[in-house]
Write a structure and sequence with these properties.
62 residues, mainly alpha, 2 helices, 77% helix, DUF465_sf, DUF465, YdcH family protein, coiled coil
Length: 62
Amino acid sequence: MSLQTHLAELERKHRQLEEAIAQAVASPSSNDLGVAELKRKKLLLKDEIERVRLTMPAPTLH
């Protein structure tokens, strides 16, 4: 898997977690622990996205 593909997959998962958090917060039956766990996972994904971006070669200007 290329770094670009891996980055795209991480960003897709990050968006899915964002949507899940929004739905959980809007739901009257959501619990704080579940929302906190989703936010923790989202933060871990954000950190991983940054690590991948830092390892990618800089684009060249031609």
